[in-house]
Amino acid sequence: MDGPFTMAASQPDSGTPMAIAEERVAQNHAINEKTSDDSKEEVEDPLESGDGDSMLSRKDSRTDYEPINVGDDEVLHRLATQMSRRESVYSKHSKPGHDDLITTNPALDPSSPQFDLKKYIQNAFQVLDESGVKLKRAGVVFKDVNVRGSGSAWGLQGTVSSMFITVMRPREWLPFGNRNPRHILHDFDGIMKAGELLVVLGRPGSGCSTLLKTICGETAGLELDEKSIIHFNGIEREQMIKEFRGEVVYNQEVDKHFPHLTVGETLEHAAALRMAQNRPSGLSRNELIKHLTQVIMAVYGLSHTYNTKVGNDFVRGVSGGERKRVSIAEMALAGSPVAAWDNSTRGLDSATALSFVKSLRLTANILGSTSAVAIYQASQAIFDLFDKAVVLYEGREIYFGPTNTAKQYFENQGWYCPRRQTTGDFLTSVTNPSERTVREGFENKVPRTAEEFEKYWKESPEYAKLHEEIRKHEEDYPVGNKAQLEDLRKAKNEQQAHHVRPKSPYVVSTIMQVRYNVYRAWRRIVNDKASTLTPLIGNIVMALIIGSVYFGTPNATAGFQSKGAALFFAVLLNALTAIAEINSLYAQRPIVEKHKSYAFYHPWTEALAGMVMDIPLKFAQAVVFNIILYFLAGLRKEAGPFFLFFLIVYISTFVMSAVFRTMAAVTKTVSQAMALAGVLVLAIVVYTGFVVPIPFMHPWFSWIRWINPVFYAFEILVANEFHGVDFTCSQFVPAYADLSGDAFVCSQTGAIAGQRTVNGDTYIAVAYNYSYSHVWRNFGILIAFLIGFMAMYFVAVELNSSTTSTAEVLVFRRGHVPKALQDSKSKDDEKGDAQGAGTTQMADKDTVKNVLPEQKDIFTWRDVVYDIEIKGEPRRLLDHVNGWVRPGTLTALMGTSGAGKTTLLDVLAQRTTMGVITGDMFVNGKPLAAGFQRNTGYVQQQDLHLDTSTVRESLRFSAMLRQPKTVSRKEKYEYVESVIEMLGMEEFAEAVVGVPGEGLNVEQRKLLTIGVELAAKPKLLLFLDEPTSGLDSQSSWAICAFLRKLADSGQAVLCTIHQPSAILFEQFDRLLFLRKGGQTVYFGDIGKHSRVLLDYFEHNGARKFDEDENPAEYMLEVAGDKDHDWHETWKNSQEAKDVLTGIEKIHSETQHLHDNDDGSDASMSGEFAMPFAQQVREVTVRVFQQYWRMPSYIIAKFALSALSGLFIGFSFFNADSSLQGMQIVLYSLFMVSTIFSTIVQQVMPLFVTQRSLYEVRERPSKTYSWKAFLMANIVVEWPYQIFTGVILYACFYYPVVGVQESERQGLVLLMCIALMIYASTFAHLCIVALPDAQTAGSIVTLLFSMSLTFNGVLQSPDALPGFWIFMYRVSPFTYWVGGISLAMLYGREIQCSPAETNIFNPPSGMTCGAYLQPYISGGAPGQLLNADATTQCEYCPLTSANQFLAGVEIFWPDRWRDFGLMWAYIGFDVLGAIWLYWFFRVRKSGKSSGKSKISVGAKVKMIGESVRNRYKTINKVNKGNAEVF
């Protein structure tokens, strides 16, 4: 026998899954080829043998190989041909044996009619076996597994006030107190042998995920009891996880791939990193990688996607089902013998889910892998593919054994399985007290609680049989047997490349890992050209702007300040572009974590690959930016200084990239990383040495410069520019015509009396304390920083590459936690989980009937056609569809993928905005009234709600704005309580909607979505789009059962449903079935046991229906028959004619009925139910409530202003009266204004969240006006921005200038408040028309950078080129800096420091006063400090700050004008935001009068995918408050 994880393919055991798979593959191929009578005889299918043994048939069906897509067999045939030819070339170099067989046996020649795929696969495995390539296989045994976790079943919603009083409640945040661990899993036992599939069944909260994680070693946040035993063919769990990571893999439900890589590139990367060193003779590594990838792609139906991007929610790529198969193929290429899949079919239709499980079955059969799968809504076809099942009930195991005996076990226990219910649904239903049914005579015998079920299981013969199976397995593979471990280690070492540590879990060497990761990084760059070119173009634009600002700077002392500013911008902008890498690293972290768990590569090799690929990218960016800026700004035009400048800027970019990457690597969340980066950026800017020169740095913060890489780079650039150059003096003191001797001096720091030039080295030594001798020392320090931070980055990435998961909890407002949940807090098992395994107990039919208004109106539609244009080509989405919905009926709308189900629903609900719709729609035979949309409810597939509102508040909001104004608030609230009771939501009515994981679960969200529409009291019809999508079978059953009660109580319901189970399908009365192109296949009654529907298809040529089948699946199969045009059959049928007759009959019968809108309420004829003032009130209250309940967002504002203000205040502390002190005050204002951008970036994502909810759900429902939406969202920011401005004022103003007179203090305060309000309105101006915060962020950065550049601080207006002076005039920061600098500086007397004083000698025999008297009396701005001296005259260039302010056109009378202009800008932003929203998102295009030339596909994509996916993403971002800084 080979090692426990190996399989020799040369002589497979006829009973092994491998042998069965090979036989079935050969059978299928032979069936397709139909080559001879012998082959036909060989492939006789036992499923059709008629032996009556259903169990055997089901066993055979599990091993059947069926291509997922048509043509996959041909692809495999082609690949086999290529491989055969390739091997034949090398056969002469190989030993005789299998290679000779390839060339001589026609059964192994793919071009021969006698080709046998079974023998080819056997031979391929023999080639691998003889080459030393072993396929690892594993069995898993677990005994007495007990798992505990910490945490409560519920949480409290935070508010702004609670954040401040938390310190008074230490028990809520201290790590001790009443926090007993919860007992999640109780005494679990089980065994999975190699090649087996295990299905894990249980309701949400029963512990399915915990079981899978425990098996695979993903126990972060969990506690496994010491007595628990888990081993893999005798190898203990700890040893397995440590040394053989990648052999046991846990896969979450979300597919994690690089979206811009193609499927082929993704899978070839996986194949390359797990490719064994000992390959078949003559085959190169690359050839085998490509061949193996193509074979795997063909097996999993992905051959057609080789060059298609994988994609994600925002990047167009393969479909969701194909992306799931990419995950499976990747895991297959990883060669992991044990895999766990956690709810991987959520959101997939049943056909795709079946393909997924078939793929797992195929992997198990071919590779002998073992998989455990937690799955929802498993059809019978899916369930039959599994070998074993485990059923969980509130954290307890109540069954583990073969799937073919599971149903009988529970029936023997006393439970009844309804007709046509799938086995999977039946097994799960026994854990639901409201769904399970006791067999007659067993009422007092069946177990009821989880403990009783567990006791019954442990006393059963099946439990004893399980332990006997475990005992026998452990006899074959004793626990702790070193031989098993050594066999596995030997098999692994044989596959490993040279120079790989023997105990390393990786297959290829680190050099190979880096190589493959570098290639992958290159492909990501090539495939994502937009992301690659955007920063390049941005750099060009910024370089042109900054360079042009300093264009024409004189090469004289007058240009010193401008040269310094240009160099400051050069190094700073290049360095700070790296901050964007934080988000990209967090985006790829889950993928890297997954690949680490697969043992593909060390995470640090991916980090190194990213840095390597940055070299050419950053070089290109540096070239375009530095060349443009350097020469436009008029910097030193010499080769040596230019290349040194380029080198330093380029290296500093890498240093800062390493710094920000390290920030991302050492943190756990993006919000933490951005917070660190925000503080870092502030420190870098202030302590570079330009804003605050070294002599003026305060000792408490001056040390920061030593750890600031940009400080060293800036010194090099300044020294490089000024070294060895004597600059012509631009202004002398005194400015006499005849200057001689040392009786004059240049009015510039560092000047020497009597010299007409200023030496650059002297200037930088005096002004900055810089020296050219430090250049190469600083370069060495930069290299040391680069190496040090890269090392920290690599270590952090390697060690911090795993995340912990937390349990789902309900969140309540403080004081509103239900008593039942508070009492359950002390319980130690998972049944205390508020997410509940329990399905909601809904009201009975009588309660529903009493709540709903009486309905008599009938909605009909006739010959509905919907045409659109996509890329100029006409396309018909609906083709003459007819039908009706009566009160009291539940009508299902079904069809194949792309049939137009949701499109028809949108058309009928009047929710389409583009395209051409023809046909008729009536209510009681009359055209639709203006209030039709408000008389209907539309339950969307995506559950979009405001995450800070409670369930009750969400329902009240809908009732208040969608019920007419004639209904009082009290009556509306009473109706809401009735809806809560009707939906059975009493227990969580005060629960906050929250985000996934901290809020309502999937079923509760769906109930709320339905409740919001019912609260609107629809008088006509309720539309539902895929109400069971993403739900488990019990939740789906509960939803459909509730819809049935609604219909029985008189409500008219039209519901799209993808592929219901037989039990769900029986709930519907009528069916409208469409096929691709919106063509009708059937409309009519379903009938008891679906007989009316089935008879129609059978009578028109369909195959006979098997009574054990699911009617829905049968119908989809029949309608998909390409040999039968069922649409033509329908058009020519009597049933179709009866539909038209029925519509006319309905019209004649209902014409005597009054319109639904009886005219008693004038508002019913308007667009909205409530007047505009009431809309504004309700929306504003809700938004204010939302902000109050987002303490992390509000506290982030306050913390940002407080910490930034204090840092700036004490960095520029107590600015003195010198020239530099005056400059420091201005630079402090410059630094304060930089906070503006961060505030704007905080506001925008929150607005997108609100807008997504409004545009996707509330605007189409005519809940309230877009004007009310905008007004509320703009105004809500103002109170918090005012407080933020007050904090900023107090923290920065007083440390810088101290206490001034009241008017000045008041002006600075008002200016700070105006800046903060302007920031919020500017954010709304930028975001209202744009799709997402990322796009708007780029525009904000550009506009803000320009406003900041042209505000007069870094370049005075008289120094600006003429074509930029308009930017100085329109920049709001010009007036903000002007107004606030007047308050802080006007009237200040200047006292020059020694370095700023101009010192020269008067002519012999003259005093300084006499010598300078003509100069000063002639209007010189400065002052003479020692008039009586005869030597060393001391002249200060300025007397008062007013002179400097006047030079930049800032005058005292303008201070309140500037404040008023700030409010003018605020008003412009508000009006501009309103206009932009109307123009881009409300205004109907003039071209669309009747017809639309715009692609509806683009619109549907935006609303149906981008908006709802963005809504999910932003919810997640808001949860962590990623925009702290």
Automatic annotation (TrEMBL):
Molecular-function GO term, any one? ATP hydrolysis activity
One Gene Ontology cellular component term attached to this UniProt record is: membrane
Q: Report any Pfam family annotated for this entry.
A: ABC2_membrane_7
| Keyword line | ATP-binding, Membrane, Nucleotide-binding, Transmembrane, Transmembrane helix, Transport
* UniProt-annotated location(s): Membrane
Q: Which PROSITE patterns match?
A: ABC_TRANSPORTER_1, ABC_TRANSPORTER_2
For this protein, the record's Gene3D superfamilies field holds: P-loop containing nucleotide triphosphate hydrolases
This protein's membrane topology, according to the annotation, is: Multi-pass membrane protein
Residue numbers spanned by region Disordered: 1-68, 86-105, 821-846
Q: Where is the composition biased (Basic and acidic residues)?
A: 21-38, 56-65, 86-101, 822-833
**Domain (ABC transporter): residue spans on this chain:** 168-419, 859-1101
User: Membrane-crossing residues?
Assistant: 533-553, 565-587, 607-632, 639-660, 672-696, 779-796, 1193-1213, 1225-1248, 1268-1294, 1306-1330, 1336-1354, 1366-1386, 1462-1480
Concerning InterPro entries, the annotation shows:
AAA+_ATPase, ABC2_TM, ABC_trans_N, ABC_transporter-like_ATP-bd, ABC_transporter-like_CS, ABCG_dom, ABCG_PDR_1, ABCG_PDR_2
Q: From start to end residue, where is composition biased (Acidic residues)?
A: 39-51
Return the similarity comment: Belongs to the ABC transporter superfamily. ABCG family. PDR (TC 3.A.1.205) subfamily.
Q: What is this protein called?
A: ABC transporter domain-containing protein
